[in-house]
């Protein structure tokens, strides 16, 4: 089995991992696609990484099932859930899986999915309907993060949500907000990302380079300002602006799975004065199945988020070229099925 392993700072090697036996309760997958995300950027560029196989998000074809596996069979396509919980600790039992003491993340705390074959516990394999292609499937966590965000914001039908940062997460959020019959307003300073938002059916986009977002949102909301706002990490947007767009008693979320040590200084005064509720959303919680449903029903379209497809063999060269520029990692899909 071949895998891309980080062996030192900015050093990735294609290694042979030997063969893995398929234990009871596990399934063996031939990987079809994986993505490069800020997690891969972080692990690859970290000063002292433990030798770790990259790959947080991936889709594979079941080639073998161990004993006691039910509901999944050879030939099924599955998404490997990137973050798993023990289900047994006090947090898990009280429904707060996000706080699980024994959770693990592929490609971050455990060897990841950027390889030709992998064996995973059945509980980490999420069955994909045929309508979702492997390259679309690698975005499931992004869509699930969007669902987790709107749940946390308790976004209601007809409410406005200002999405600061047209990142992949931001564009997934905007589409899920439409599905919730809310009104997304996407704010960014990159014209190409805002064009993408428009292509995805987002009616209100604001480019802060030439438009004052506060004035514009005042006019869109007939002077009420927005009930909710979501700030997307790694968007390069000024965090403070998210709060300027909110109404009194507004709800805001800071969203993203990685921050890569970026500065997150904020002035709390406007939050205090407007009585804003502020929530961090750093994981997809258990929203993977909702995300699968949204992709299968085409409520969310992730195809336009794919910026580049690279062959499995060239992952090392691509990482070297992308370095620590997180923007370059957005929407990169690794095609493993062509091996
Ligand atoms: Zn737990």
Write out key terms for the chains shown.
339 residues; alpha/beta; Quinone Oxidoreductase, Chain A, domain 1; Rossmann fold; 2 domains; seven-stranded mixed β-sheet; six-stranded parallel β-sheet; 12 helices; 18 strands; binds zinc ion
Your description of this structure?
There is one protein chain. With 339 residues, this protein is α/β, with parallel strands linked by helices. It has two domains: 171 residues, Medium-chain alcohol dehydrogenases, catalytic domain (Quinone Oxidoreductase, Chain A, domain 1), CATH 3.90.180; 140 residues, NAD(P)-binding Rossmann-like Domain (Rossmann fold), CATH 3.40.50.720. Helices cover 27% and strands 28% of the residues. The chain contains twelve helices and 18 strands. The mean pLDDT is 93. The structure holds zinc ion. The site of zinc ion has 9 residues, from helix 2.
Topology:
Elements: E1 2-8, E2 11-16, E3 26-36, H1 38-45, E4 52-53, E5 58-65, E6 77-80, E7 83-84, H2 90-93, E8 104-105, E9 117-121, E10 125-127, H3 134-137, H4 140-153, E11 160-164, H5 168-179, E12 183-188, H6 191-199, E13 204-207, H7 213-220, E14 226-232, H8 241-244, E15 246-255, H9 269-274, E16 277-281, H10 288-296, E17 308-311, H11 315-322, H12 326-329, E18 332-335
Parallel strand pairs: 11-12, 11-14, 12-13, 14-15, 15-16, 17-18
Antiparallel strand pairs: 1-2, 1-4, 3-5, 3-9, 3-18, 5-6, 6-10, 7-8
The chain binds zinc ion.
Zinc ion binds at residues 85-86, 88-89, 91-92, 100-102.
């Amino acid at each position: 089995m071949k895998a891309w392993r980080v062996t030192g700072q900015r050093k990735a090697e294609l290694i042979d991992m030997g063969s893995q036996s398929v234990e009871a309760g596990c399934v063996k997958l031939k990987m079809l696609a994986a993505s490069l995300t800020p997690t891969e950027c972080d692990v690859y560029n970290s000063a002292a990484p433990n030798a770790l196989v990259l790959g947080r998000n991936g889709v594979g074809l079941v080639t073998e099932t161990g004993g006691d596996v039910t509901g999944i069979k050879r030939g099924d396509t599955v998404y490997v859930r990137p973050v798993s919980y023990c289900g047994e600790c006090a947090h898990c039992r009280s429904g707060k899986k996000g706080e699980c003491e024994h959770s693990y993340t592929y490609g971050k705390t455990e060897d990841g999915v950027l390889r030709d074959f992998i064996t995973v516990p059945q509980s980490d394999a999420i069955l994909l309907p045929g309508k979702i292609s492997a390259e679309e499937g690698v975005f499931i966590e992004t869509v699930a993060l969007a669902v987790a965000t709107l749940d946390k914001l308790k976004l209601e039908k007809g409410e406005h949500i200002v999405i600061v940062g047209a990142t992949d997460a931001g564009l997934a959020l905007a589409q899920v907000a439409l599905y919730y019959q809310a009104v997304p307003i996407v704010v960014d300073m990159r014209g190409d990302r805002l064009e993408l938002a428009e292509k995805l059916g987002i009616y209100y986009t604001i480019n802060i380079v030439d438009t004052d977002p506060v004035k514009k949102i005042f006019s869109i909301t007939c002077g009420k300002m927005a009930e909710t706002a979501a700030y997307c990490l790694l968007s390069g947007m000024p965090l403070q602006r998210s709060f300027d767009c909110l109404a009194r008693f507004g709800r805001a979320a800071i969203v993203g799975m990685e921050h890569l040590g970026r500065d997150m200084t904020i002035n709390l005064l406007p939050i205090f004065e407007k009585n804003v509720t502020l929530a961090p959303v750093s994981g997809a919680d258990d929203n993977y199945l909702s995300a699968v449903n949204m992709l299968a029903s085409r409520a969310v379209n992730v195809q336009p988020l794919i910026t580049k497809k690279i062959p499995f063999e060239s992952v090392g060269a691509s990482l070297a070229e992308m370095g620590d520029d997180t923007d370059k990692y957005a929407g990169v899909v690794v095609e493993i099925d062509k091996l």
